Amino acid sequence: MAVLIIILVLAFIGILISAFMAGGSEKCKKALLWSAGGVLLSALTGGVLFFCKGAVKEILLKQKPHLSFMAENINIPWQIMLQLGLTFFFCGIILFLWSFNCRKNSSKWYWAVLWSTGVAFFIGHLLFLPQYYGIAAWINFFVPPKQDVFSLDLSMLPAFYVMLAVNLLGALLWLWHTLKTKKHSWKNILFFAGSFTGFVCLVWLTAWGTGTWAKNAMEKKAAELGIKPIQVAAQEPPELKALVNPEFYTKHPKYNPPRSGKYDWKKDTIPADEKEYTMKFFTSPELETYLDSLKKSAAYIAKTDVLHLSTLQHFRFLVRHRSDIAELYYRTNQKEKVLPELLKYPELDRLIPADTPHLICELVRTAGCWIWIEALIQYGPEEKSLLPAYRKLLDWSKSWKVHLPCEAGFYLVYHPEIKGKIAAFFYAPYLNTARYRGFFDAVKRIPALEKLEQAEIISGDGMYAKAAKRQRLGIIVGQTALALKVYKIEHGKYPDKLSELVPNYLPKEYVSPSTGKKLDYSVKETNFTLVVDGSFITSER
After folding, report:
1. What does the alpha-carbon distance between residue 434 and residue 414 come to, in Å, rounded to a whole number?
2. Which residues pair with 347 in a beta bridge?
3. How far apart are the C-alpha atoms of 541 and 349, rounded to whole Å?
4. Contact residues for 420 (Cβ-Cβ < 8 A; gap 6+)
5. How far is CA 238 from the centre of its chain?
6. pTM for the whole structure
């Protein structure tokens, strides 16, 4: 990366020198030769960048350190490298043209150096901070966003290309004037530099006014619709961080239960000493204290205005551990304790509000439901005396619904970390219009999401369609598996066909949310297997 930066810096210095020599030359032939040199150096900068995929990848990972875990799998397409190469080529051309005009219109070389340095600084801002210019705010209104709710960066790209084009057009117009007029003086430099600066300032000021209007319009619409600000916290508050002991697994490295551990208990791959430790530890007060701390942490999900991602992780840990305990009761012949343990899940499910504004909460709830259902089907006792409890669970499962929050409230508080008041001031028009666009796009999604929530068959591959399929899949598999469990307790065996569950156990026979086909159901001896859309659940222990 360092070598690439050195080459690019030297190339741009060469472009400046070529421009000064061409602009200061009185002979046309000599000026053309120096101009050709400037063009070649511009092409060199673009060509070098095109072939330096490794350095570009290194810069990307430095800017996005959270992607470092998948560094080996990141492959930058050649189209992106070509785009970067062309960008630096045109930046070199623009720098050459501005510097040539500055030198041509000044009898003093230091005036040319001064203005050219300003141009280079401006182009640097164009490359790395396009959101500073008003054009970025305007483009937010017309270019469909390509980003998710956690990243507004991509909407800057069209603004960057427009500003590049504006720079090139301004440089060419000045070149035309420079070659046409015989009056070359510092006044020409001030006139064109001042005109261009005035144009940029005018665009920015109109964008600032528009951004302010957009911010007010967004807040007004949010108040009308009752949409409240929501945010994903970057850091945990001290009281939340202190709830869960981070050294629990370090202190108990031999505790490896069936679902939360690293071994396959069904294939008996767990070492004997760790198995023995787990069998003894799972009923200990210390583990119960740890699970209670997970529950208290997960309870923070109910604070719907601010989401702490660690609480969702703790919710999953909690459900897994409770399912582990139920299975371990079964494996240690304490079967009377299995169902009471599994009956704790509905209470855990209520830790996530039914109307949560965060889509990720709904996905975590779905994952938790899968974990619980699997444990219930495989290890839940099947005595007829327990039938009322199972019937109650089946009735409860019929209240499960697909819920897809539009997450519009995120844009009401979205604000990236910007260092410095001046930077924040120049960033404001872009940020306000980006938030406006994201907010109203989210609001427009609401009717479509309501249809998705009610749909039995869901088409599309968008983020919300995928989430709806996952939730719908969890509902139909969970309800059907529970119905099969209840049927077996009442009849002593599983039904031959799922249609036998209707209407006493299920309101209807469910179908795949992706294909509309009936669920693939099979019975072998005393176990059933239910398969749908590549996912399955089995009663086999």
Report:
1. 10
2. none
3. 24
4. none
5. 26
6. 0.76
